[in-house]
Specification:
Chain A: One of its GO terms (molecular function) is ATP binding. The complex is a heterodimer of chains A (246) and B (224). Chain A is of the alpha/beta class. Chain A has a domain of 171 residues: Rossmann fold. Chain A is built from 9 helices and 10 strands. In chain A, helix 3 crosses helix 4 and helix 5 packs parallel to helix 6. The radius of gyration of chain B is 21 Å and the shape is flat. Chain B is an all-alpha fold and 224 residues long. Helices cover 80% and strands 0% of the residues of chain B. Classes of the chains: A alpha/beta (246), B mainly alpha (224). At the A-B interface, helix 2 and helix 3 of A face helix 6 and helix 7 of B. The complex binds adenosine-5'-diphosphate (ADP) and magnesium ion. Magnesium ion binds next to helix 1 of chain A. Adenosine-5'-diphosphate binds next to helix 1 of chain A.
Chain lengths: 246, 224
């Protein structure tokens, strides 16, 4: 197995509370991995640690040739890692002072140093892909939840990241907007973008994931192809969880 | 009771009007400098920069805890006795420095409050795309904080304009100084100071209208 992305021995504590208890994970190029598990189990923390929104206490994160040892990560390494991992937030977290287009442009100009016109052309291209070609000048406050989350995904797409991280991208949405956001993520998945997606949408995970990871208590309990996890899970905890979520 | 000498007052109008530019100049320069300084002070406090944070806290405490007039006298009359380079500092410069430091202390606190009011998700989103601390403050956090702080900062600007009148105690002939001189010649103190009061009042009223416009347009910008 050739890992494009390799996570080794990731540990995160909040005070005395060990939230990630030694996570090892390897993603092949283009692999789409869904993470499922009870709430409070460290799924968000895992994603946040991969982007250093939470600083891991221990462990190594390797993205291709970039290897970051959490214990002694320099500021430059953290920035490099963040520029190669894109994060989609549960609550969208769009820049409230910027239009949809400017939200997408920001990472291109400010972070990647693109000239304004090139970035604008790319942003317009992304706006069209996310079905918001006509809303580029709208501010987040004037958009529906579904539209905002699509812009959030567009902002992440603009980074051309090695790894896209989705933290329950549809959990905060009114039911009417869930479909359009899942459709967009499905299209990104179809493009074989390497991704880690935390989701409660089991049917969706089964459809798009190459592999499903079940987490509980800060550890990976079981992982495998969707058919295996959803069909014949080995671990009692996995089966119990899947029974609960129906 | 004697009647107001309105003819004298009318004569004074162009005289005092001639000093409006100097008053505005001092207020605007000091305001811009204070905005820059206050933003830096606020950032030091928000990021809890080691050591500097304590220094800034003392700075803010001192400039909020002592009267502006005392501060101006310290700069103009006091410091030159210790720092020879400051000998011969002119009144306008001393007033601008004093106003800047004094108001930056107040403004830093309201900017700090506004920054802390920006949702944590905004910091995280900016970090997640790889922005440096400086970039995220400049492009995401400060603009949003500024929106919250704008009405308060505008109030400080209005306060600043009125406070420029203290520059006359440093020998600067600005609006207040000019009125004082006129009155000293004519002995018509009431008329002279009434005219200058009305001038301040008009300037502040004009700014208040601007302030309300600004607030409406800021309100619109986020809800388009
Ligand atoms: N910033 C934080 N400070 C303290 N505890 C936290 C923090 N973030 C998360 N936790 C704790 O870590 C545990 C895992 O949280 P999280 O990763 O959000 O779980 P999940 O996403 O699986 O629901 C929870 O018990 C939560 O209370
Ligand atoms: Mg979560």
């Amino acid at each position: 197995m050739s890992c494009q992305i390799e996570i080794t021995g990731l540990v995160k504590r909040f005070g005395g509370n060990t939230v990630l208890d030694g996570i090892d994970l390897c993603l092949e190029p283009g692999e789409r991995v869904a993470i499922i598990g009870p709430s409070g189990t460290g799924k968000s923390t895992l994603l946040r640690c991969l982007n250093f929104l939470d600083r891991p206490d221990r462990g190594v994160i390797r993205l291709g040739d970039l290897s970051v040892d959490a214990a002694r990560a320099s500021r430059a390494e953290v920035l490099a890692l963040r520029r190669r991992t894109a994060f989609v937030f549960q609550n969208y977290a769009l820049f409230a002072n910027k239009t949809a287009r400017a939200n997408i442009i920001e990472g291109l100009t400010t972070v990647r140093g693109w000239p304004q016109d090139k970035a604008r052309a790319r942003a317009d291209d992304i706006l069209a892909q996310i079905g918001l070609g006509d809303r580029g000048d709208s501010y987040p406050a004037a958009m529906s939840g579904g539209q905002q989350q699509r812009v959030g995904i567009g902002r992440a797409m603009a980074l051309d990241a090695d790894l896209m991280l989705f933290d329950e991208p549809t959990s905060a949405l009114d039911p009417e907007w869930v479909g359009e956001v899942l459709d967009l993520i499905r299209r990104i998945a179809d493009g074989r973008q390497t991704m880690l997606i935390v989701t409660h949408e089991m049917q969706f995970a089964r459809e798009i994931a190459d592999r499903v990871v079940f987490m509980e208590g800060g550890r990976i309990v079981e992982q495998g192809p969707p058919a295996q996890i959803f069909g014949r899970a080995q671990d009692d905890r996995t089966r119990a969880f899947l029974r609960r979520v129906g | 009771m004697r009647p107001l000498d309105t003819a004298y007052m009318m004569d004074l109008v162009p005289v005092i009007a001639g000093y409006v530019p100097l008053t505005l100049f001092m207020a605007i320069v000091a305001m811009i400098a204070a905005l820059v300084l206050a933003s830096m002070l606020a950032i030091v406090r928000v990021l809890r920069v080691p050591v500097l944070d304590r220094v800034v806290a003392v700075f803010i405490s001192f400039f909020r805890g002592t009267p502006l007039l005392v501060q101006l006298f310290l700069f103009y009359f006091g410091l030159p006795q210790m720092v020879p380079a400051m000998t011969g500092i002119n009144g306008v410069t001393a007033a601008i420095i004093g106003l800047t430091l004094h108001f930056s202390a107040y403004m830093a606190e309201s900017i700090r409050g506004a920054i802390l009011g920006v949702d944590r998700s905004q910091w995280e989103a900016a970090q997640s795309i790889g922005m440096t601390q400086g970039q995220l403050l400049r492009r995401i956090i400060l603009p949003q904080g500024a929106r919250t702080a704008a009405p308060t900062l505008m109030n400080y600007f209005i306060d600043m304009i009125k406070s420029t009148s203290l520059a006359f105690t440093l020998g600067v002939t600005e609006m207040m100084g000019a009125a004082q001189k006129e009155a000293a010649g004519s002995f018509l103190y009431l008329e002279a100071f009434l005219v200058v009061a009305i001038f301040y009042w008009i300037i502040v009223e004009v700014l208040s209208v601007g302030q309300r416009r600004l607030e409406t347009s800021l309100g619109k910008a986020v809800a388009r």
